[in-house]
Amino acid sequence: xxxxxxxxxxxxxxxxxxxxxxxxxxxxxxxxxxxxxxxxxxxxxxxxxxxxxxxxxxxxxxxxxxxxxxxxxxxxxxxxxxxxxxxxxxxxxxxxxxxxxxxxxxxxxxxxxxxxxxxxxxxxxxxxxxxxxxxxxxxxxxxxxxxxxxxxxxxxxxxxxxxxxxxxxxxxxxxxxxxxxxxxxxxxxxxxxxxxxxxxxxxxxxxxxxxxxxxxxxxxxxxxxxxxxxxxxxxxxxxxxxxxxxxxxxxxxxxxxxxxxxxxxxxxxxxxxxxxxxxxxxxxxxxxxxxxxxxxxxxxxxxxxxxxxxxxxxxxxxxxxxxxx
Length: 325
Prior knowledge:
By secondary structure, the chain is an alpha/beta fold. The chain has one domain: 3-Layer(aba) Sandwich (Rossmann fold). The protein is built from twelve helices and eleven strands. Strands 6-7-8-3-9-10-11 form a seven-stranded mixed β-sheet, sandwiched between helices. Strands 2-1-4-5 form a four-stranded antiparallel β-sheet. The chain starts with 5 loop residues before the first strand and ends in a 6-residue tail after the last strand.
């Protein structure tokens, strides 16, 4: 199949909620987000906590309700398919969560946890063959035969995350979503896990959707970058272009907030107060026009009146800002 492996068009996810006065409202967790992801490539998704990153991931997996928009996998529209029809896609799309201990069954040994997807999707295969695949996958993620009969509480955080990755990769998926999958790990363990993912992607050609608040991690692993704020796309494009010359004020603020070892740059950043002022507004009552305007030092009257459309200043690049050009 030619074209992108995953295509997300104008995707919105809304939840019914109550306002401060008890009135019924809609919480727009994801608001008309679009992007494409090709086989063998990685898309990084960044933004502050509460910006809709995880909800977007769950909607792609059809674990969160899709309010509007279209989801296509390898050209197939699966936006409104029932759970039975989604079963083949469940095998092709997997997720690695932030907390492996919360996502692994404490009663399952390492081998049982990794074998479970094969037991579900390939129940007719001889058990010996499935066990052989499990052993090979555990070796692939750096866990030898000595780990097969151990349980999650007996492993370190990095070892448990390797088990989660093995579980996600067993059976040959085509897309793996990593939802803050290295944020709870030490820096040295993060590097090991990232290198493991890059090696497996190079060998198998899987696509990765990598969600993180750590911009250095995202830059290391991603080809493209999607910046979210209050469920909306602020900036989208090739990672190196976005990192080299961020165009949206929110993207620049995120990049400027990354710690640096240069004391002169740290003093300059403190003087300029690059980090967005105040707290992110409630998604139950987002600002009119541009949702970022209440924290943007360059906002104008136009920003309060009109919602910015996604502009395309160069090929493959999109920015939602009235003044980005």
